[in-house]
Amino acid sequence: MYLSPLLFIALPLAAAFFTVLLGVRLRVLGYILASVSAITLLLASLYASYFVQHLPSHIFIYKVGGWMPPLGITLVFDALSTIMLVVVNLISLMAGLYSLRYIERYTDSWKFYSLFLLMIAGLNGVIISGDLFNLYVFLEVASLSAYALVAFGTEAQDLEASFKYAVMGALASLLILLGIAFLYSYVSTLNMAEIAFVLSGKPQGLLVYFVIMLFLAGFGLKAAMVPFHAWLPDAHPSAPAPISAMLSGVVIKTLGVYVLARIIFNVFGMSQKALLVLMVLGTLSMVVGALMAITQRDIKRMLAYSSISQMGYILFALGIGTPLAVIGALFHLINHAVAKSLLFFNSGAVEYSTHTRDMDSLGGLNKRMPVTAATSFIGSLSIAGLPPLAGFWSKLLIIIAAVQAGHLAMALVAVIVSIITLVYYLKFQNQTFFGALRGTLDKVKEAPLSMNIAAVILALICVGAGLLLVPSMRPILERAADVLMLGSGYKDVVMGGVR
Amino acid sequence: MTLIVKTITRLTIGIIFIYGIYITLQGHLGPGGGFAGGVIVALSFIHILLAFGKDVGMRKLTQKKVLFLMSLGAVVFLAAAVFNFTMRHNQEAYTLHAEKFRIFSSLFMPIYDIAVCFMIGTGLYAIFLALALFTAENKE
Q1: Residues 6+ apart with CB under 8 A from A354
Q2: Per-domain residue ranges for chain B?
Q3: Which of A80, A462, A475, B105 supports an S-S bond with A480, CB 3.0-4.6 Å?
Q4: At what angle do helices A390-404 and A370-384 cross, to 10 degrees?
């Protein structure tokens, strides 16, 4: 690779530290550094994705400092990690663009940007880290930044949500660390490929299943999987809108789903019991999230419950464990990241202009905020799964995969939940943007240009993402799914790449 | 605090501070290093807070200075680490060419130690300062 892979971690870290160093005096520096970093990282992740797709082995291993594993740290670039990098850095760039005007109403914007950049560094680190302990460290970097960002408004409810999030997050981290410690005691290595190698030659006793349960609970908490979801409906609405978009769009997916999938598929070699747990809890998340979302009046709270429900789809599809289901899961992950970030941007725009998020006090906003109304309509329909938007195709893939695998009852549940999703998104559209304009909202103006540009770009991606299923583009998704479907064969690919 | 505590603090604080710097600088030659040294340096400032109150402590080391020094340490550490990793020099840095009683005898370790001392020292002091301010606010 012509770029140093360290860039994905070092650039946002350096930008975050420089923002703290000089941001107090030079207020605009935070925004400049965040923008430059986000643009560079998106371009670098696109390049990394292109580079990996064109390698014969579709994998690139970077040995930090030239040290060989298991002593040295490895950064792994494969089709899955590069596609995740693109998603994370795309949403980060959009969130950065959106923040330009949105964050003006908060004091000390440099603190926002430094935490935002730290979160990006943590997310990138989690994605490319090849060993379990570094993954944990980056997970903590991203989580700690997220706790602080949720409390950024410093209102009582923000602090309460942040505290709840921090307690639940710390519990999750503790479970994960305990799992890593037990696993290390059993296999004597922290490199994920080496762990898979050692595990393949050892009997999978009770300890291994205990570790899988610890990881399921720990990463399940990070992914807000039911029954570990209680923190999310408080934490995501309390954060500033661009951060809500990041949290729902990429943080729960990277820290929860991606890591869980990587560990269960590639480290433990597709443990069937773990996949069954994922499928059951995924279905439960789908149903509980959707039923809770219907009753919400606060837009962001409804979107947060919707995230739990949509994460359920992804986990359910991963639990099915067939190639088509995994492609569906990854495709839905991308679609949900884009559409949910868009909807959080829209909710932020509505709040920015009307100072409320209560659907009962809104109505007829499409006359005053046409761009926000149009983009949120696209986002809502994409998540609800209406053709021809991208969300439809990913849900269709998941449901077909479930039917093919013989899980007819759960496929039916997925269809019913999709209808419920359509119901609450139509309710949101109807109560917020359609109908007669309320008298109190007569003087409302459209959100600033930078916020609209970010929303429009994401709306266009919502429409265009269906193209990923076009034959010439499909290999991107297929190769990412192949990485997971390799199961414990991942170790051979990584070890081949190291040599 | 009483006059006895204040006097003893005034006498010992410099020694604690210098001891912290000593522990930091000889990290690559013996037991110690940036973390341990940083903790001791932070303790010297925390002593000021405890003995003379938060107002005196904050005059010595303000919040802005704390932030500046902390991020300076982080920037230096990151720059040294990236330089080291990309230039593949770290094997020399870790296979210490350290000679006894010579501080600058190991390539990068003293720089790391000093950077970590900045981060840990100011970080711990910042936590203590935040707690002191929070308690004071609650009392008001």
Answers
A1: A361, A362, A365, A441, A444
A2: 3-139
A3: A80
A4: 10
